[in-house]
Design goal:
Number of domains: 4
CATH architecture of the largest domain: Orthogonal Bundle
Protein name: PDZ domain-containing protein
Organism: Fulvivirga imtechensis AK7
Strand content: 25-35%
Oligomer: single chain
Pfam families: Peptidase_M61, Peptidase_M61_N
InterPro entries: PDZ (IPR001478), PDZ_sf (IPR036034), Peptidase_M4/M1_CTD_sf (IPR027268), Peptidase_M61 (IPR024191), Peptidase_M61_catalytic (IPR007963), Peptidase_M61_N (IPR040756)
Structural class: alpha+beta
Length: about 575
């Protein structure tokens, strides 16, 4: 398939796409645009951004076509041996999985906008892009000047492109791989500092997995002036959107910058190549479901942070804080008691990335990371650190990913059992396909590495006494979460606006200072002001969980900790 992309008025944000097809051997061709993209397993329906579709014959006449689905066009080509299809695509959504075109930037995720002949998915693709001569180009595809080539459609749409006159380029090598960091947007980052950090975690990932599947890899960053956090993985690159860029040297955002980068790099093995059988190969015109999203995203979430502490980019306390954040997200999501992580994986297509019914589902990222943490520590404890989840990931790479073989849920359990040395049927039944609480198990497993899971009351009296979580909505406080079975559930609704508490104006700044034997709330619900009088009971909600070292860890526990995180448990102050 031969494409050409050109640009007219950047203020309209439309890119013009042409597709040339040889139709001498076919009477009917069906052209499709993907309805989803790898990395986000839900309907995207990119066809909503197409306008001006037309097909021209070799005789320069319009060919009739008909839409046979929302994302598929059918052409009658009996009267011509060549067809030129053209259309405009609206590239005006900035995140890691979409496309953007304006006066300063050309950013294309080809999966958004490149129609394909459903009979030619495995044929070579060539794309000419009329990029300004003064633009730097970041893309993993092979190219000669402005012409890019891919072995097939799958490679093409897995190779995002970023081009701009302002993009900054940094190179480093790690594990015999050449890495490229492309920074689009103004930022305060120190080149030497980030290069050193990237080299460290890249080295550690390649070291653990034994090899890297590509000779080169590209980090494509959009560093934005507003708040955004999003990353998407590809076979030899990743796109990461992060902001506000001016705060990138702040501890929290810098941590996120490196965390998402490590996460996305590990995807080069896990999900790009170590892939569920259900999506081997990708079928872009069909809905996709699979039960092992917790492996694809949850295991990657676990390892993304793990590599940063093992490589020495961050220290023990940083990793403890990341685990505490994970614990908060886990224990605060009551959907884990309604839907298992497997069921939530299957349901990605319908609501995996959006808010739906309260407490309906668990997060494959969070719950999958909790499963990975448990399995890693279980295998380590069972084998006295001879084996770990690292061995499971390496075998998944060698015998599945590297061989282009998809794995099943049963394969995951069998591999974990192989290195654990015993059956894990009960664990998978209770904690993967089931809804059992992980609190006691996590506490027990952390002890094996000289740590403990500490539980304390919520700092906010509204969370602690009433099970109410509030959020700041344009300066007003609104109820954003209610603990099931709590006092708050009997008196409040989601989105209630809290006006005053005990005759004081409600604000996030005071959220931890409200403490009384009785409470009077003035709220606004459905445009009506109401007064609510309630008294705290004996039950407590939204407890805080934190990991801490035990008082006197044994030498065995300290060594187990070193084997796990690559650093010392006891830190001299």
């Amino acid at each position: 398939m031969k494409y050409s992309i050109s640009f007219r008025n950047p203020l309209t944000h439309f890119i013009h796409v042409e597709l040339e097809l040889d139709t001498s051997q076919v009477d009917i061709i069906s052209l499709a645009l993907p309805i989803w993209r790898p990395g986000r397993y839900e309907a995207a329906n990119y066809a909503k951004n197409i306008r001006g579709f037309k097909a021209i014959s070799s005789g320069n006449s319009l060919l009739p076509y008909r839409k046979i689905s929302h994302s598929m066009w059918e052409l009658d080509t009996r009267a011509t041996d060549k067809v030129m299809v053209s259309y405009d695509y609206f590239a005006f959504k900035m995140d890691a999985g979409n496309s953007w075109y304006d006066e300063e930037l050309i950013y294309i995720n080809f999966i958004n906008c490149m129609l394909y002949d459903i009979q030619q998915l495995n044929e070579a693709c060539q794309v000419f892009i009329d990029i300004p001569d003064n633009y730097s180009i970041a893309c993993g595809l092979k190219r000669q000047r402005k012409t890019f080539v891919a072995d097939n459609y799958y490679e093409l749409v897995d190779s995002p492109l970023l081009a701009s006159a302002e993009v900054e380029h940094i190179e480093y090598s790690a594990g015999n791989v050449q890495f490229h960091i492309w920074l689009n947007g103004r930022h305060p980052l120190d080149r030497d500092q980030i290069t050193k950090a990237f080299r460290k975690f890249s080295d550690k990932q390649v070291e653990m997995m034994g090899e890297f599947p590509e000779e080169e890899y590209h980090f494509l960053f959009h560093l934005l002036p507003y708040k955004l956090y999003h990353g998407v993985e590809h076979h030899d690159s990743t796109v990461i959107c992060l902001g506000p860029a001016e705060a990138l040297n702040d501890e929290d955002l810098y941590s996120q910058f490196l965390g998402v980068s490590s996460h996305e790099l590990f995807h080069a093995w896990n999900i790009i190549r170590i892939r569920p059988k259900e999506i081997m190969p990708y079928e872009f015109h069909k809905p996709v479901t699979f039960p092992t999203g917790f492996v694809a995203e949850g295991f990657t979430t676990y390892y993304g942070d793990l590599f940063l502490v093992r490589s020495g980019v961050f220290d023990r306390d940083w990793y403890f804080n990341e685990l505490n954040v994970l614990f908060k997200r886990h224990f605060s999501n009551f959907g884990r008691l309604n839907y298992s992580v497997v069921d939530s994986s299957v349901d990605l297509w319908i609501d995996g990335y959006s808010v739906s019914a309260p407490e309906r589902k668990s997060s494959i990222y969070v719950e999958g990371a909790m499963v990975a943490l448990c399995l890693d520590l279980m295998i380590r404890e069972s084998t006295t650190n001879k084996y770990s989840l690292d061995d499971v990931m390496r075998e998944l790479w060698l015998h599945y990913g590297k061989q282009n073989i998809g794995y099943t849920f049963d394969d995951i359990q069998a591999l974990c059992e192989k290195y654990y040395g015993n059956s894990l049927a009960e664990f998978f039944k209770e904690h993967v396909t089931g809804l059992a609480s992980k609190e006691d198990l996590i506490s027990e497993l952390l002890n094996s590495v000289g740590c403990q899971l500490m539980k304390s009351e919520a700092e906010s009296s509204l969370e602690k006494y009433f099970g109410l979580r509030l959020s700041d909505n344009n300066g007003g406080l609104r109820v954003s979460q209610i603990a099931p079975g709590s006092i708050g559930e009997r008196h409040f609704s989601l989105n209630d606006e809290i006006l005053t508490i005990n005759n004081e104006e409600a604000s996030m700044e005071k959220i931890n200072s409200y403490d009384s034997s009785s409470y009077v709330f003035m709220i606004r619900r459905n445009y009506k002001d109401l007064e609510i009088n309630i008294t705290p009971g004996t039950d407590r909600y939204f407890p805080i969980y934190k990991i801490e070292p035990i008082a006197q860890p044994s030498e065995r526990q300290q060594e187990a900790f070193r084997q796990w995180l690559g650093c010392d448990l006891i830190v001299d102050v």
